[in-house]
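Data availability (excerpt). The following record was deposited with the supplementary files.
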Amino acid sequence: MKYDQDYYIMSPDYDVAGYSVIPSASTGLRRFHYRELVYGEPALRFSTKNSQKLYDDVEMLFCTPSFIISEDLKEVFDDGVYGGKLYPAIINNTKHNYFLINIYKALDCWDRNRSVYEHDDPDDEPHVIKYSLNHA
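Predicted structure:
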């Protein structure tokens, strides 16, 4: 695979209403966006904005920057998630099965030797002009 030509970036469609969720107070305290969640602890709880009804065909929800997927999409991730795992989530107290994609390790696939970038200040992030990705 030519990683520099073929890769995908997942991001929410902010124009689509009803696909954003809000964490409960107890879920928010668990820092699920960047900390590894421990299996055996309670499922994460979310609610739709303005208590909107959650339709059965919704396969992906967003609690930016995190993603929550349905049981149907879980099969795609059954081989694992790089730097993360799937963690049970409950939406609007329904019985449908959802899973948060819990990413807790940084993914560094940037090939600095082949990329073009400027890095004037070591205390600041580099300014990348052209990315090149590492080959597996």
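Summary of structural features: Residues 107-136 form one domain.
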